[in-house]
Amino acid sequence: MSTIQLHGKSFEIFLPEALLQEKISELAAQINTDYAGKKPLFIAVLNGSFMFASDLFKSITIEAEICFIKLASYKGTTSTGQVITAIGLDVDLTNRHVIVLEDIIDTGKTLHTFLPQLYNQQPESLKICVLLHKPDATLFEVPIDYCCFSIPNKFVLGYGLDYDGYGRNSKDIYKLAE
Ligand code: 5GP
Ligand code: MG
After folding, report:
1. For 62-80, how does the pLDDT look when each residue is reduced to its tens digit (9 = 90+)?
2. Rg of the Cα trace of the chain?
3. Pocket probe mutation, ligand 1, options 104, 114, 134, 162, max atoms within 8 Å of Cβ
4. Which is the catalytic residue, given 90, 92, 103, 106?
5. pTM of the model
6. Which end of the chain offers a freer environment for a tag, N or C, measured as fewer CB atoms within 10 Å?
7. H-helix or E-strand spanning residue 23
8. What confidence tens digit (pLDDT) does each residue in 74-112 have?
9. Closest residue CA from atom 16 of ligand 1
10. Distance (Å) of CA 166 to CA 20, 39, 59, 128
11. CA 28 to ligand 1 centroid distance, Å
12. Percentages helix, strand, coil for the chain, rounded to the nearest 5?
């Protein structure tokens, strides 16, 4: 299907399955080389990254672990506003080589706010690996070490990414039609 309708909006095909899989395999090969002998720990951020994490991890051939977290935002009791905490981070990161897997970095706010909690645990190294990055949307700098696709500042869905809860189950990524 080259277009789909969801919640009254029209989405057109943007990144087809074959292209996604090709890039993810290339990225996995790079990580296999970079992390040989380092037993990295992947931390996949749910929900959006579940398909990306699954496909990437299947192509990781070195010794590696994976765990999954969700990030919860709260309105702080002070005027400083939002606090973001991890749900389910039950692994000790001390002296580990950590690779965070995210579906998409948009403004960068989520990871910018959350990453200090990971650094606090003093991992040996910490790198960020994303499927999609919207450089034109950046408001908060996040160091991105591995990225499959830099994309324009348009809303996308599919391959784990949702629009109001739906659309995650597409093998391709779609973008909002003009
Ligand atoms: P950030 O904090 O970088 O602005 O946004 C991160 C989160 O916003 C992503 O993990 C994702 O859940 C959501 N997001 C940002 N842009 C998009 C988009 O184009 N499509 C979808 N489905 N989610 C997005
Ligand atoms: Mg996400």
Report:
1. 999 999 999 987 765 555 5
2. 17
3. 104
4. 106
5. 0.95
6. C
7. helix 17-34
8. 765 555 567 788 888 989 999 999 999 999 999 999 999
9. 106
10. 20, 35, 27, 26
11. 23
12. 25, 40, 40
